[in-house]
Automatic annotation (TrEMBL):
InterPro entries: UTP_pyrophosphatase-like, YgjP-like_metallopeptidase. This is M48 family metallopeptidase. PANTHER family: UNCHARACTERIZED PROTEIN YGJP, UTP PYROPHOSPHATASE. It comes from Rheinheimera marina. It comes from the Bacteria. It holds the Pfam family YgjP-like. Residues 15-220 form the YgjP-like metallopeptidase domain.
Length: 227
């Protein structure tokens, strides 16, 4: 077996060899004094383990539009498409109907679907966050101006110094407890415009899920999209 490329680090604290795979790279920690030959023999011995762990596939991103299933606040909506005279969406129970205009060019059809589904999520986000904010702001003793949905690539929400709040429409693809955490997080910024200990203290007073919710978002953000 040819050796995979690896990063070697000697440590005076180590008694044994340790292999680790991080960001698709093999790292070796070795006790001082071990020869390169001993280290490489060890790597050869562990070839099976290394190969299994180096070839873990990237997380799969579902293609929601093709599957015609949309994640929505912890459940799934069925997507149904009909040809019509205009482009529009309608929610009926657990079905999201997309009307696609017969005048759309065939090559633009998918873009129209993306646009309509995004409009739907953005609309729901304004309703959900608008409705829930009133309740929490009261309890937290803060006041906001406007609630809107936002199309952000790298953040879930924002809070301006004027008290305008924005929430990423992609949050409507997450369960409600995640949305609730992001809501409380942004409302807490109305009192603390930073991420200080006082800020987190206020968040935890009104939401016990901050830690698991942040972990959930890190683990699931890759499929919260329509591309
Ligand atoms: Zn923040």
């Amino acid at each position: 077996m040819s050796l995979p490329p690896y990063q070697l680090r000697y440590s005076s604290k180590r008694r044994t060899l340790q292999l680790q795979i991080k960001a698709g790279q093999l790292r070796v920690a070795a006790p001082v004094g071990l020869s390169l030959r001993q280290i490489e023999d060890f790597i050869r011995e562990k070839a099976g383990w290394i190969e299994r762990h180096l070839s873990v596939p990237e997380p799969l991103v579902p293609d929601w539009l093709t599957q015609q299933q949309l994640p929505y606040l912890g459940r799934h909506l069925q997507l149904k498409i009909v040809t019509d005279t205009l482009n529009a969406w309608t929610l009926e129970g657990d079905t999201l109907w997309l009307q696609l205009s017969s005048r759309n060019k065939a090559e633009n059809q998918r873009r129209w679907m993306q646009q309509l589904v995004q409009q739907f999520y953005a609309n729901e986000a304004e309703l959900w966050f608008g409705h829930s904010a009133a309740r929490f702001a009261n309890a937290m003793g803060v006041q906001y101006q406007r609630i809107r949905s936002g199309d952000f690539k790298r953040k879930w929400g924002s809070c301006s110094s004027k008290g305008d709040l924005q929430f990423n429409w992609r949050l409507m693809m997450a369960p409600e407890w995640i949305c609730t955490y992001v809501l409380v997080h942004e409302l807490a910024h109305l009192r603390h415009m930073n991420h200080s200990a006082d800020f987190w203290q206020l968040v935890s007073q009104f939401n016990a899920d901050a830690k698991p919710a942040r972990a959930w978002l890190r683990q699931n953000q890759h499929w919260m999209q329509l591309d």
